[in-house]
């Protein structure tokens, strides 16, 4: 298993180089530290993997404001879609990292922050999307496994696939566009039970789905996530069904199944680069990649599919 890549961005190049060498030596392979001259450089190196976390020391936020290192770290995190932690000259309780503590302490804190980031990413949220820019990756199978896991606690599977495997005749999209107060009743009429899962499919034609805007989905989710209605919405989102990447901002958590094979990492980097160009760095932070083998997808065992989410 590879070490977690840590990017060090410091205005003091000697400190950055010394910290990099000390972390690589002391972490026993758990950390692979590298130095970047500026925060934005950390995610523009297309020939190597992106960092799992960036340590920011002395740089302003993306707008050039220098007074608050915590705000600078938060700004770069939103901009780049990568967790960023500010390093400070004095110990602080604000989620920063004290740069002059022992290397062992820095190493321990880094690993703790990475673990906390992962755990927060695995929390079940009200709106979950299963989406992937790659085909034949088990997206629908994973979405159904998530819906099955939530079935007893008020979960609803929402199909927004561009090419569903069934004929779909639904009035819900019309109700959404009209902001109809009866949309919940329309959903209730069209729900079908498939394998013990409550499901609704919004359309069988992806041009209809591409007409759905971010405001439409936010309103629709608010109508369903009310007391005595639904607790969790799991949406199977087709890549061709998106009018724009900003629609993914409607979801609290985005699970991204990825197949194994050559070229996957390069395609994923291209997708992330595209999202940053569209100013969707915050969406990238909500994405939880999940590598699935063809055998796991073929078996379709919900417990096996979801085991990677809690590892």
Keywords summarizing the entry:
311 residues; alpha/beta; seven-stranded mixed beta sheet; 20% strand; elongated
- The average pLDDT score comes to 85
Extended strand count: 12
Sketch the topology as an H/E string, one letter per element. EHEEHEEHEHEHHEEHHEEHHEHH
Biggest sheet strand line-up: 8-9-7-10-6-11-12
How would the global form be characterised? elongated
The count of helical stretches stands at: 12
Q: What is the helical fraction, as a range of percent?
A: 25-40%
Provide the low-confidence segments as ranges: none
**Distance N to C terminus:** 14 Å
The main pleated sheet reads as:
7 strands, mixed
Rg, please? 21 Å
Condensed summary:
It contains twelve helices and twelve strands.
Describe the fold and architecture:
- A seven-stranded mixed sheet has the order 8-9-7-10-6-11-12. A five-stranded parallel sheet has the order 2-1-3-4-5, with helices on both faces.
- Helix 1 (13-26) links the parallel strand 1 (4-10) and strand 2 (31-35).
- It starts with a strand and ends with a helix.
- It is of the alpha/beta class.
- The chain is built from twelve helices and twelve strands.
- The chain is elongated, with a radius of gyration of 21 Å.
- Helices cover 38% and strands 20% of the residues.
